[in-house]
Design brief:
Layout: H1 2-25, H2 32-59, H3 66-71, H4 78-83, H5 89-108, H6 116-140, H7 164-192, H8 201-230, H9 241-266, H10 270-292, H11 306-330, H12 345-377, H13 385-405, H14 416-441, H15 446-467, H16 475-496, E1 499-505, E2 510-513, E3 516-527, E4 532-541, E5 547-551, E6 554-558, E7 563-567, E8 569-572, E9 576-586, E10 590-599, H17 602-629
Antiparallel strand pairs: 1-10, 2-3, 3-4, 4-5, 4-6, 6-7, 8-9, 9-10
Helix pairs in contact: 1-2, 1-6, 2-5, 5-6, 5-7, 6-7, 6-11, 7-8, 7-9, 7-10, 8-9, 8-17, 9-10, 9-12, 10-11, 12-13, 13-15, 14-15, 15-16, 16-17
Length: about 625
């Protein structure tokens, strides 16, 4: 029953989306508000029914559906039965559509007596996007397709994806990706309206951009957490093309957010904001293409028929061609010729914008170029960490310097001596803390010095601004900047001072890393709900021979999928992580053990959470502003 209901609701979603598009595009329609209310609510209701019908099918293990059969099993824990709904291509498209209709609903809530033409145009564009994705799902990726022969059990779910962080990672990413669709639609509406339409479009746009950027931030962070403890190599980022697919819209979203502040305060950069709104969403759709096209080999991708990727690529080309041509024709009326002083808040935002776009272009080139080379020459090349470190890092350094000083500056030109007086306490504090850090670790490197200086430059400026009552700044923005500083601190520490040790250990053997002594006490066989595992029991002693932790990494075997995975065990404090991975081995030869000493890595996660909290605070203040416009 549930599959039939879900499929019927999916087709109804298409009908309501088409109805919304037609209704919103008709000019001088006195009933547009009433009809759009029907279309928007119907679209949201049907997408909810369709999505939860698939979820119900997964929970009850309805193996009459191909989607459930290929991605579930009766022994799978409930959490992963639920997350398995969006852990595959077809189900993830239903989630994408659901998030799209939720944003569509909130756009409809913007209607008032003065903005009906603007909101109708926004809803028209949103409906077009929705039609495109619903059609794609129905025609190429229907999750409600039935099995010819119903089996008593399924094939299971990729064990490496059975993780709490990854269970909530995709929905958060999708809020980010799809949130930029609202900015895209508002940009199209703004460009389409005549000069007589005096709508504060940027005030309507900002809360949606803030929501998209905030949830994209925490979504990327959770993906990094998962990579850190699930993949077993002690790292949290490795410039995977699919990681880049989420990072690129985040970079443009960062530039877009800061530009919107300038538009609100100075009415400058309007055409630039409209362009960034278009590009941020187009990059989100390009990311969808990369994940679903089958052209990438990655643990993050859905290995699929490339014809599905062709559909998304064609759809992206249609959206991109229309929007960029419209921008080229209509953006002049939003162009402002005002002069920007470099030593001003708007000047620092402009510089930072340029740097963010250059970084995004560098990442885009590194991601796309190997695909183009393979497509045209049939030769495979790889673009890895050395390329990104030599291109992205040098560009980010001045961007971070500007980020630290920007909030200190005033709108308009400011005297340089006053600027120096404002930033001198931060310079002094940064220098003192940097010296203290390097005296503590007693190792020096150029990257380490630069990283620590930049981290505490941002942190000290943010803390000083938060404690100054005179600064008329958004607390949310400053909290987010503080989070960036903490993030840089964690990245620097874990990159510069990380130590790795790979050894063969038998029961009773011991090894050392830094000031810690680690003994393998025993190996136990354990049984999980859907796996078997060898679990190591490691005792960790400090230099005073006090036991500080008992770490129990596992080497798991999933019989249903015939897969082996490793589960790292980590002891964390504010200064470092001790990270142990148990590899292959036996009683006679011992086991391969990989041990990492990762300094300051927890500050990456604290920084990401702080950025997220800053985004939430800013979202709240922007929603209050939006309510005043209603």
């Amino acid at each position: 029953m549930a599959p039939y209901l879900g499929n019927f609701a999916l087709w109804l979603s298409l009908c309501f989306a088409v109805f919304q598009f037609i209704n919103s595009s008709i000019k001088n329609n006195n009933s547009i508000l009433q009809f759009n209310k029907i279309a928007v609510n119907g679209l949201l209701f049907c997408s909810l029914v369709s999505f939860f019908s698939l979820m119900y099918s997964h929970v009850v293990s309805d193996f009459s559906l191909i989607n459930v059969f290929q991605n579930s099993h009766t022994t799978k824990p409930l959490l992963y039965k639920i997350s398995g709904v969006w852990g595959n291509h077809e189900g993830s498209m239903l989630l994408w559509i659901l998030v799209l209709t939720i944003f569509n609903f909130f756009i409809f809530k913007l209607y008032n007596q003065t903005n009906s033409k603007f909101v109708s145009k926004v809803l028209e564009t949103q409906a077009l996007i929705t039609v495109g994705f619903v059609l794609f799902t129905i025609l190429t990726s229907n999750p409600f397709e039935r099995m010819d022969v119903v089996h008593t059990n399924g094939l299971g779910f990729n064990p490496i994806l059975q993780d709490p962080a990854l269970a909530i990672h995709p929905p958060l990413l999708y809020i980010g990706y799809v949130g930029f669709s609202a900015a895209f639609s508002m940009s199209i509406a703004t460009l389409s309206l005549g000069n007589n339409e005096k709508i504060l479009w940027y005030s309507y746009m900002k809360p949606f951009v803030m929501a998209a950027w905030t949830f994209l931030t925490i979504g990327i962070a959770l993906g990094s957490v998962w990579a850190y403890y699930e993949l077993g190599w002690g790292g949290w980022w490795f410039w995977d093309p699919v990681e880049n697919a989420s990072f690129m819209p985040w970079l443009l979203g960062t530039a877009l957010l800061h530009s919107l502040i300038t538009v609100e305060k100075k009415k400058s950069l309007q055409s630039w904001v409209l362009l960034l709104s278009i590009l941020a969403f187009l990059l989100s759709v390009v990311g969808t293409f990369l994940v679903r096209s089958g052209i990438l080999t990655s643990i993050h991708t859905f290995a699929l028929d490339p014809s599905r990727g062709i559909y998304i690529l064609a759809f992206t080309a249609i959206l991109g061609g229309y929007s960029l041509i419209l921008f080229g024709l209509k953006s002049k009326k939003h162009f402002n010729n005002s002069y920007f002083s470099f030593f001003s808040k708007e000047g620092s935002i402009l510089v930072n914008n340029i740097l963010m776009v250059v970084v995004c272009a560098s990442v885009f080139l590194g991601t796309i170029y190997p695909l183009l080379v393979e497509a045209f020459t049939n030769n495979k090349i790889s673009v890895g960490e050395p390329y990104y470190n030599t291109t992205v890092v040098p560009i980010m350094i001045p961007a971070i310097l500007v980020m630290g000083i920007g909030p200190m500056l005033s709108w308009g030109r400011e005297d340089k001596s006053k600027i120096f007086k404002k930033i001198f306490p931060s310079i002094l504090l940064t220098a003192i803390i940097t010296i203290f850090i390097f005296l503590f670790y007693q190792t020096y490197s150029f990257i380490g010095i630069v990283g620590i200086l930049l981290a505490f430059w941002i942190i000290s400026n943010s803390v000083i601004i938060l404690f100054r009552k005179k600064e008329n700044l958004s607390n949310g923005m400053i909290i987010a900047h503080l989070g960036i500083g903490l993030l840089i601190l964690g990245i620097t520490g874990s990159s510069v001072w990380q130590e790795e040790k790979i050894t063969q250990m038998k029961i009773g053997n011991e090894t050392n890393i830094q000031e810690y002594n680690i003994i393998l006490k025993e190996i136990n066989e354990i049984k999980g709900p859907n796996y078997l595992a060898l679990q190591g029991n490691f005792f960790v002693y400090d230099k005073n021979k006090n036991i500080i932790a008992k770490l129990k990494p596992e080497n798991r075997f999933y019989p249903i999928r015939n897969n082996f995975t490793t589960e790292a065990s980590i002891h964390t404090n504010l200064l470092r992580d001790l990270y142990i991975v148990l590899g292959q081995g036996n009683l006679n030869d011992g086991w391969v053990v990989r041990i990492y000493y990762n300094p300051l890595v927890i500050w990456i996660w604290i920084g990401a959470l702080t950025i997220f909290l800053g985004g939430i605070v800013s979202m709240n203040s922007n929603l209050k502003k939006l309510q005043r416009l209603s």
